[in-house]
Design a protein that fits this description.
Helix content is 36%, strand content 17%. The protein is α/β, with parallel strands linked by helices. It is globular and about 60 Å long.
Length: 433
């Protein structure tokens, strides 16, 4: 599909180009946007008639693809009652039902639920909880430790714990709070464990724990920072070190939550529970922005009995009834489905079909965990050119940096996974020509 064909579509792409600021995009030199007419199942239909197999789950959110009957019905039924009421002084059944489910399915001990509007806000909430927890105890612990190559969102507190070097937030380093960073976990998920991998974090905590409110990390999978899969023993040891030095542990499962890694939550790979847990993305099946931050009773009680007497946060759309209803339908569908078998099937197919890419000179290595497949190249790709090649091959895959990766919906068929893998192989092969 060429630019001339795109510009003939019903969507006013000229207006879009001139007035709508898309994510991570220049307004003076915007990258092409492909006009979407509809999406159904695991496919995205462009207004030009092309149908693309979706390999991204709309930035990792659509567990069951698009136009899901149960989620549509939940939204329609809730709209007939109310789409939203303020959550201050009011509550409703969808929120209570969702909280019950989250408390039941998340790692043990997380019993208090705070709803918000997006993943970044869930992280902001978690960090504020940690700060207010120590403030309530009369301890001046105002810093965080985060992992290098980590990513936690685009808002200011989230940026302060996102990788400080070479990241998308480098521009703002003079303005965000200064925190501590420990080395990226050096032992991969499937490598033999070495306790020396904990040396840097252990030293950092030993020397600075009196200032540290919490360690924040993405369990097992560092997502936007490089799609790095690290060893579960790192997470287990990090939990122990936090306990040893009196530091809270915040697990950011916004990308990994709800089965993506093969466990319902990535923390389960290490059999640990954090003090605070962040959830988002897939919580509503990709239907709308929504998030939750869960905390232990100890954290919630300490904050509530502190000087302020309350937790100082309250988004306008907190506990949105429409989002809660869709989330309930999404989680009901997930938990009543053999999602583990679906993820295992995708994982097996990604493993068998992406590995051949390692034979290509352009490819450094291939890695797969759960329903995540990553092809790491030796050098960064021209994203606009590669994106166009993928569209021409009938798939929607959006690479970044040196990485071409897929996180397909759990209901993707074998034929659709095959098409995604074949497209990746063809594109990587063409890089070498």
């Amino acid at each position: 599909m060429n630019d001339k064909q795109i510009n003939k579509q019903e969507i006013d792409l000229s207006y879009d180009k001139q007035h709508i600021w898309h994510p991570y995009t220049s307004m003076t030199a915007p990258i092409p946007c492909y006009p979407v007419d509809s999406a159904n199942g695991c496919t995205i239909s462009l207004t030009s008639g092309e149908v693309l197999v979706d390999g991204m789950s709309s930035w990792w959110a659509c567990l069951f693809g698009y136009n899901v009957k149960e989620l549509n019905e939940a939204a329609t039924q809730q709209l007939a009652k109310m789409s939203h009421v303020m959550f201050g002084g009011l509550t409703h059944q969808p929120a209570v039902e969702l909280a019950k489910t989250l408390v039941e399915i998340t790692p043990k001990g997380l019993e208090k639920v705070f709803f918000s509007d997006s993943g970044s806000v869930a992280v902001e909430v978690a960090m504020k909880m940690a700060l207010q927890y120590w403030q309530s105890l009369g301890q001046n612990k105002t810093k965080f430790i985060a992992l290098k190559k980590g990513y936690h969102g685009d808002t200011f507190a989230a940026m302060s714990v996102t990788d400080p070097e070479g990241s998308m937030h480098e521009l703002y380093q003079d303005f965000v709070a200064k925190n501590y960073f420990t080395e990226q976990p050096s032992i991969n998920f499937d490598q033999p464990w070495q306790q020396s991998a904990m040396d840097d974090l252990s030293t950092l905590l030993a020397e600075n724990h009196q200032h540290i409110a919490a360690l924040i990390l993405e369990p097992i999978v560092q997502g936007a920072g490089g799609m790095h899969f690290y060893h579960p023993n790192y997470l287990k040891a990090a939990r122990s070190l936090c306990d040893q030095y009196g530091v809270l542990l915040i697990a950011d499962e916004i990308a990994t939550g709800f089965g993506r890694t093969g466990k319902l939550f990535a923390c389960e790979h290490a059999d640990i529970s954090p003090d605070i847990l962040c959830l988002g993305k897939a919580i509503t099946g990709g239907y709308m922005s929504f998030a939750a931050t869960l905390a232990t009773t100890k954290v919630a009680t300490t904050i509530s009995e502190g000087k302020a007497g309350v937790f100082m946060h309250g988004p306008t759309f907190m506990g949105n009834a429409l989002a809660c209803s869709v989330a309930n339908a999404n989680l009901k569908k997930l938990l009543s489905t053999d999602w583990q078998q679906l993820v295992f099937s995708i994982s097996s197919q990604l493993n068998s079909q992406l590995l051949r890419c390692e034979q290509l000179p352009s490819v450094n290595k291939v890695r797969v965990l759960g329903a995540i497949g990553v092809v790491e190249l030796h050098r960064a790709v021209d994203m606009v050119n590669i994106q166009k090649q993928f569209v021409n091959l009938g798939v929607w895959i959006r690479p970044f940096g040196k990485l071409i990766y897929v996180m397909p919906p759990y209901v993707a068929s074998k034929q659709q996974i095959n098409k995604l893998c074949d497209a990746i192989y063809q594109v990587c092969k063409k890089i070498d020509e």
